[in-house]
Amino acid sequence: MTQSPISLFSVLFKIFILFLPLVHNGQELPGLKNLEGSWMGSLNVGAIELKLVMNISFTASDSALVTFDSPDQGVNNIPTSKVIFTGDSLLVESNLLQGKFSGSFMPELNTIRGIWTQRTISLPLTFNKTDKKTVLNRPQEPRPPFPYKEEAVFFPNLFAGIELSGALTLPEGDGPFPAVVLVTGSGPQNKDEELMGHKPFLVLSDYLTRLGFAVLRYDDRGTGKSKGAFETATTFDFAGDAEAAMEFLKKHPAIDTSKIGIIGHSEGGVIASIIASRRADVGFIVLMAAPGLPGEQILLLQSALIRKSQGTDDQTIEKENKLAETLYTILKKNPDNGKAEKLIREQIARFDKKYAGDTCYHPLSEEALTGQIHVLTSPWFRCFLTLDPEVYLSKVSCNVLAMIGSLDIQVPMSENLKAIESALIVGGNPNYEMVELPGLNHLFQKAQTGNPAEYAKIEETLSPQALEVIGSWMKKR
Length: 477
What we know:
Elements: E1 27-28, E2 37-45, E3 48-58, E4 63-70, E5 75-79, E6 82-86, E7 89-94, E8 99-106, E9 111-118, E10 121-130, E11 148-157, E12 162-171, E13 177-183, H1 200-210, E14 214-218, H2 235-250, E15 255-265, H3 267-278, E16 284-288, H4 295-309, H5 314-333, H6 337-354, H7 366-376, H8 379-386, H9 390-393, E17 399-405, H10 413-426, E18 432-437, H11 464-476
Helix pairs in contact: 2-3, 4-5, 5-6
């Protein structure tokens, strides 16, 4: 065995996005002067490596100012709420991140070595002194002035009793314009679908608006300026939010209400299919790397491919997926979270005991295990585990464009395009197009392997080829 079962629980496309900064008050910590400057470290979160920078500076009155940057996620100056430096021991907490770093300064190595804890996950973290400020190069990000208008908008999801916030871009002219709603993938994301230092929906909305389409993108519930709770919501709740976005467009005077479609990325594609299966007023849907297979199959396939891309042997992958199948069965048979947790802990304890003699096997810590169980028993995961896109795709009658990159190892291309096409055929819908995009990953970037660890390192946000496929297809329809 090469790794603990933490790899089993990588939730589909979920990336924990850091939030916007607030002002931090100075603290009297004169001993911290020895650490003044910027310190760079890396967190290995499953298949993804996230850089974290700790900045230590002082005011004119010698009050310490300590902030964090997350370069890969494009977030800087994240405030801290507590800083304690005693001897060589350093504790830095951030209420905003619900995280803390606890470590020791090693002057002979000029490093600070310790543990990063966020929510219920603990990871080793070593900071090294750096003189360079990390700046991400994202050449595709649009810059003003723009040849179109952008409106900040707010609209209600009346059923959920929440208000959602977003941006509507309108082409030049009076309209009415054909329009599209952009729906993000899994995990809490803002209206630009910002992740790993990229803003895919900002690039996509700019491209489509320049082609003559009105584009509405919005913050996920509980994210950015949108209200509501994200952590208790399921895929079907997010579908309700996307429908609320459609209703907003239908009432906007500049929109051609007979030509409103939905573009969904990843889980957003499933949401687009759900809405199109029950509404005749959806003009078209574009499925960007959308699953066609049931949730459990996607999770097992994704886990195996990511682990393989990390060099894990086939025997280990088979053992891990067998355990995952057992845990998924427990979840499906036990709706009560308390009972499910008890059975999951028992199963993992047996797994730990079985491989205790393997020197390469490292069991999960209690904190990490508790965090993973929290994810597994969440409403979203329980919903996604049994969700079958075929049920909804077979009821879609509007025009459908489904596109997946050949290097996508989160939603593998051949298996999912085949499943999507099969569902549309079963439903008798001839109005579809399946597109395979060679060399592109799950984010539609030109990639080398498709491993999520590459996402932040690639400068390209959205392949021009992918943009052209979407734009030309939409203009024809």
